[in-house]
Amino acid sequence: MGYDAESLVAAIRALGAVIAQRRTELTQLDQEIGDGDHGENLARGFSAVLTKLRSTEPETPAKVMALVATTLISTVGGASGPLFGTAFLRGSTVLGGAAELDGALVAAGLVAARDGVVARGKAELGDKTMVDALSPAADAATKAAEAGADVAGVLAAAAEAAAAGAAATAPLQARKGRASYLGERSIGHVDPGAQSTAYILESLAASAASHATGTAV
Amino acid sequence: MGYDAESLVAAIRALGAVIAQRRTELTQLDQEIGDGDHGENLARGFSAVLTKLRSTEPETPAKVMALVATTLISTVGGASGPLFGTAFLRGSTVLGGAAELDGALVAAGLVAARDGVVARGKAELGDKTMVDALSPAADAATKAAEAGADVAGVLAAAAEAAAAGAAATAPLQARKGRASYLGERSIGHVDPGAQSTAYILESLAASAASHATGTAV
Amino acid sequence: MKKIINDPATVVDEALDGVAAAHADLLTLHRNPTYVTRAGAPIAGKVALVSGGGSGHEPLHVGYVGEGMLDAAVPGAVFTSPTPDQILDATKAVDGGAGVLHIVKNYTGDVLNFEMAAELAEAEGLRVSAVVVDDDVAVQDSTWTAGRRGVGGTVLLEKIAGAAAARGDDLDAVTAIAQRVNSQVRSMGMALRACTVPHSGEPSFNLAEDEMEIGIGIHGEPGRETRKLAPADEIVEILLSTIVEDLPFASGDRTLLFVNGMGGTPEVELYLAYNSARKYLHGKGIEVERSLVGNYITALEMQGMSITLLKLDDEFVELWDAPVHTVALRRGL
Amino acid sequence: MKKIINDPATVVDEALDGVAAAHADLLTLHRNPTYVTRAGAPIAGKVALVSGGGSGHEPLHVGYVGEGMLDAAVPGAVFTSPTPDQILDATKAVDGGAGVLHIVKNYTGDVLNFEMAAELAEAEGLRVSAVVVDDDVAVQDSTWTAGRRGVGGTVLLEKIAGAAAARGDDLDAVTAIAQRVNSQVRSMGMALRACTVPHSGEPSFNLAEDEMEIGIGIHGEPGRETRKLAPADEIVEILLSTIVEDLPFASGDRTLLFVNGMGGTPEVELYLAYNSARKYLHGKGIEVERSLVGNYITALEMQGMSITLLKLDDEFVELWDAPVHTVALRRGL
Ligand SMILES: Nc1ncnc2c1ncn2[C@@H]1O[C@H](COP(=O)(O)OP(=O)(O)O)[C@@H](O)[C@H]1O
Ligand SMILES: Nc1ncnc2c1ncn2[C@@H]1O[C@H](COP(=O)(O)OP(=O)(O)O)[C@@H](O)[C@H]1O
Ligand SMILES: [Mg+2]
Ligand SMILES: [Mg+2]
Ligand SMILES: [Mg+2]
Ligand SMILES: [Mg+2]
Question: Which residues form the DhaK domain (chains C, D) (predicted)?
Answer without folding.
Answer: 7-329
